Amino acid sequence: MNFASNNFLPLALTSGVAFGLVNPTLGCLADKCNLSKFSTFGIFVVSGLTLRSDAIGAAVKAWPVGLFGLSSILFFTPYFSRIILLIPLQPQEFVTGLAIFSCMPTTLSSAVALTQLAGGNSALALAMTVLSNLLGILIIPFSISKFIAVGVGVYVPTAQLLKSLVLTLLVPLILGKVLRESSRGLANFVDHNRRLFSKINAVFLSLVPWMQVSRSRSLLIMVKPAAFIVAIGMGMLLHLGLLAFNALAIRSLSAVSGGHKSIFSKKENAQAALLVASQKTLPVMVAVVQQLGGAFGESGLLVLPCVAAHLIQIVLDSFLANFWLRKELSSNTAKVA
């Protein structure tokens, strides 16, 4: 039970995919009832409910690090999509899906949670998370048009996509935040039950790949296992590439802005920036794919490798956060001794 509680999100995601593959009937019925729109709406309402205002204000001192993080998330890392699109792999949706995934903002909760676990600047991580997702709503349509639509010969209705993203992401996020601020009792309840709301979000998130995989099962079983393994490997390489790029950039910025005295050299800030800037969010990617209406291919095939990539980044970064935590505990023990 402890293992299931500590790993609820990856278990929920993999269970959703597994149920969709084993018995797609219920998932197809849920998809016809537009349950996917409800789950996406629910994800961002919960995100608004759990968003603390004081945490954002506490990150102001580290604004240069936050500015780098936002630039990396929204402007630098989307260039990785160009490299991904060069990979010859069938079905083409696997490649296109991962390319779209690289244009997304950071995860809504995983990076912040891992930053807290590692002892990093969680307020800075939260600020970058909120701002990148809000700004991402405006920037994502243009990133897809620039980096992906040209490569696959598809025109993206930028204005329509922007409007859809505002309605499905921004409105419920604001609604959740307004509900939190309008009731002190509700805010206290949410703060005392953050693990519960995190699990609720995980359930909402797992509904989406469940429905997508159920609807596309007939296509998925035709995909060669070797191709899917390659797609998973691509997702892992994408995350490792993002980690390497951001680590090198943070170290370079630290060197040119004062060395060990630089705000980039502070371990808490560096950890937050590295984790947040190197992760990509699945819910926004799914919302984008839904709004594209099949312009880039079958949505289930687009989403499936990104579910794997999402799980991979959480697992890899959990090991990284654990390593930092153990290193810090060892250092404190040595100082006491």
Automatic annotation (TrEMBL):
It is found in: Membrane; Plastid, Chloroplast envelope. Residues 1-27 form the signal peptide. The chain crosses the membrane at residues 40-60, 67-88, 94-114, 126-148, 154-175, 196-213, 225-249. Keywords: Chloroplast, Membrane, Plastid, Signal, Transit peptide, Transmembrane, Transmembrane helix, Transport. It is a multi-pass membrane protein. It comes from the Eukaryota. GO terms for cellular component: chloroplast envelope; membrane. May function as sodium-coupled metabolite transporter across the chloroplast envelope. PANTHER family: SODIUM_METABOLITE COTRANSPORTER BASS4, CHLOROPLASTIC-RELATED, SOLUTE CARRIER FAMILY 10 MEMBER 7. Belongs to the bile acid:sodium symporter (BASS) (TC 2.A.28) family. This is Probable sodium/metabolite cotransporter BASS4, chloroplastic.
